[in-house]
Amino acid sequence: MALIQLIYVSSAAREMDEGDLHRMLESAVRHNETNNVTGMLLFASGNFLQVLEGEDAAVDEAMSRIQADPRHHGIILVSREEITGRDFGAWSMGFRGVRASDAEAWPGYAPYFESGFNASLIGAKPGLALDLLKTFAKSNS
Ligand SMILES: Cc1cc2nc3c(=O)[nH]c(=O)nc-3n(C[C@H](O)[C@H](O)[C@H](O)COP(=O)(O)O)c2cc1C
Questions:
Q1: pLDDT of residue 139
Q2: What pTM did the predictor assign?
Q3: How does 67-99 read in b/e, with b if 16+ C-beta sit within 10 Å?
Q4: Which of 54, 55, 82, 116 is most buried by its number of CB atoms within 10 A?
Q5: Which residues of the chain have pLDDT under 70?
């Protein structure tokens, strides 16, 4: 069985408050703990950027659940790659809301999140999505 890492971008179907995000994350964590899936979810201006890691069947199963979830739409796959080790092994699903103030701290990344995550912009630069996810995972405030 291959270990894979999958990254996608999507748009929230409607405005989501902290309670909505918390409930969604709780269910994601519950499924991921059962299936040994790890990752990180970023939320910026109504867009999600998520990375999922695990055995290919487990990640594909999580992705089927994700695709069927009416809380978001416009799911665009950024990458799906075989990996030798996990980058987010400590999180059943980490979460970080990316705010306008983060643009000052990360000016180089600002164009990629200031008006929400843009899949074509992010996808055009290999490694960029993973860099964003790792950067915000580390500054998990
Ligand atoms: C932005 C977003 C992220 C999600 N992340 C995950 C995830 O990491 N793993 C997973 O299994 N499902 C994920 N889901 C899917 C939901 O968890 C799923 O629709 C929900 O678990 C419904 O099943 P439940 O009734 O068992 O809660 C995600 C859904 C959305 C909208």
A1: 84
A2: 0.96
A3: eeeeebeebeebbeeeeeebbbeebbbbbbebe
A4: 54
A5: 140-141
> What pLDDT was estimated at residue 1?
82
Q: Which has the closest alpha carbon to 36: 96, 88, 97, 95?
A: 88
Task: Choose among 71, 47, 58, 57: nearest CA to 122.
Answer: 47
Query: How many domains, the chain?
Result: 1
Closest CA to 44 of 36, 26, 135, 59: 135
- Which of 11, 27, 49 most suits a substitution to test ligand 1, by most atoms within 8 Å of the C-beta? 27
Domain span holding position 35: 3-138
User: How much is the pLDDT for 141?
Assistant: 57
Asked if 7 contacts 48 with a C-beta cutoff of 8 angstroms, the reply is no
Gyration radius of the chain's alpha carbons:
14
Would you state the pLDDT for residue 55? 98
Which protein residue has the closest C-alpha to ligand 1 atom 13?
Answer: 28
